[in-house]
């Protein structure tokens, strides 16, 4: 499988390493944000440096395009790659716009090409531990998922840029996708969010607090914050059920029931991009099923879009089940 890679950051490096280690793939070319970083990356991973992603997706010696660049550009690159008859692997989100993402999925089907949206949060130790222990807490009625990252000074990079990263819970859509994978479809959402910024393009802090009411009656709070005016880090997932609770705090996990607390092995977050890459190649070469569908990712993007509309309007947004 001849592969072209868009991106030279953290995820792109892990993709390149995985592709080089698998004899079924050959990394043909890479394109990054600047010629300098692209040349350095290409030399490290023994591949060809290109000047634009448009040039990469048009190459006849590329069978698959892996998109590991800023969120804003995912949709445009995926659409162009599919139009040129390439398989596409893209880090979440597929696009920052729901309608665009829906059109790209339809294009992949028309072209009869693979479109895989990475959601490695489903492969990690936390998610697997949640799935294995969920039945023990009975009917779940409340979940709180908080990822807060103080950074002072805040880096002036794309993850703090309104346009390049997107709305916080679209750019960080894995927070919602984990919940939807566990608990099903969403009935209503609301959201409050705030930026602290001294210029128009970049912000120094964001805080986003959303509530999702599921069809089951479950209420989930999702808290996402990063930047300078946040003072205490937190990576916590709480599940409260009628027969017990699950508490995951950082890399530790506990099952709490009446009169007893049991430690849970959370496992590791290492090696997930390599695992995802291997599963893509297994699918293409042997037809083995993938762990997530584009439609599942699209539904989460629909929910994230509703969260954004709730934040902008101050209203509770009702979702219907159709991917309209």
UniProtKB/TrEMBL annotation:
Q: One Pfam family this chain carries?
A: GFO_IDH_MocA
Keywords annotated in UniProt? Transferase
Show the Gene3D superfamilies listed in the entry.
Answer: Dihydrodipicolinate Reductase, domain 2 (3.30.360.10), NAD(P)-binding Rossmann-like Domain (3.40.50.720)
Origin: domain of life: Bacteria
Q: Is Transferase set as a keyword in this record? A: yes
In this chain the Gfo/Idh/MocA-like oxidoreductase N-terminal domain maps to 1-119
Q: Which InterPro entries match?
A: Gfo/Idh/MocA-like_OxRdtase_C, Gfo/Idh/MocA-like_OxRdtase_N, Gfo/Idh/MocA_Oxidoreductases, NAD(P)-bd_dom_sf
Q: Where is the Gfo/Idh/MocA-like oxidoreductase C-terminal domain?
A: 133-314
A GO MF annotation of the entry reads: transferase activity
| Family label | Belongs to the Gfo/Idh/MocA family.
| Protein's UniProt name | Glycosyl transferase family 2
């Amino acid at each position: 499988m001849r592969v072209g890679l868009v991106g030279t950051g953290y995820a792109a490096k892990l993709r390149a390493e995985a592709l080089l280690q698998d004899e079924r793939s050959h990394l043909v070319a890479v394109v990054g944000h600047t010629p300098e970083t692209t040349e350095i990356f290409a030399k490290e991973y023994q591949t060809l440096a290109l000047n634009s992603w448009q040039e990469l997706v048009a190459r006849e010696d590329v069978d698959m395009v892996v998109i590991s660049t800023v969120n804003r550009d995912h949709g445009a690159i995926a659409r162009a790659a599919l139009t040129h008859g390439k398989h596409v692997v893209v880090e979440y989100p597929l696009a920052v716009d729901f309608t665009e993402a829906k059109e790209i999925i339809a294009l992949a089907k028309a072209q009869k090409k693979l479109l895989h949206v990475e959601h490695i949060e489903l492969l990690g130790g936390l998610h697997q531990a949640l799935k294995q222990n969920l039945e023990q807490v009975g009917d779940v009625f409340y979940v709180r998922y908080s990822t807060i990252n103080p950074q002072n000074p805040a880096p002036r990079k794309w993850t703090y840029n309104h346009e390049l990263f997107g709305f916080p819970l679209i750019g960080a859509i894995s927070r919602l996708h984990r919940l939807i994978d566990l608990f099903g479809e969403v009935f209503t959402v609301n959201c409050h969010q705030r930026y602290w910024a001294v210029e128009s393009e970049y912000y120094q802090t964001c805080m986003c607090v959303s509530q999702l009411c599921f069809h089951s009656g479950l209420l989930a709070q999702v808290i996402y914050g990063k930047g300078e005016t946040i003072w205490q880090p937190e990576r916590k997932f709480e599940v409260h059920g009628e027969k017990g609770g699950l508490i995951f705090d950082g890399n530790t996990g506990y099952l709490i029931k009446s009169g007893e607390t049991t430690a849970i092995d959370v496992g590791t977050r290492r090696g997930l991009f390599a695992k995802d890459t291997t599963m893509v190649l297994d699918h293409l070469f042997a037809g083995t099923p993938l762990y997530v569908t584009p439609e599942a990712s699209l539904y989460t993007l629909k929910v994230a879009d509703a969260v954004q509309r709730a934040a902008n309007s101050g209203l509770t947004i009702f979702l219907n089940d159709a991917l309209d």
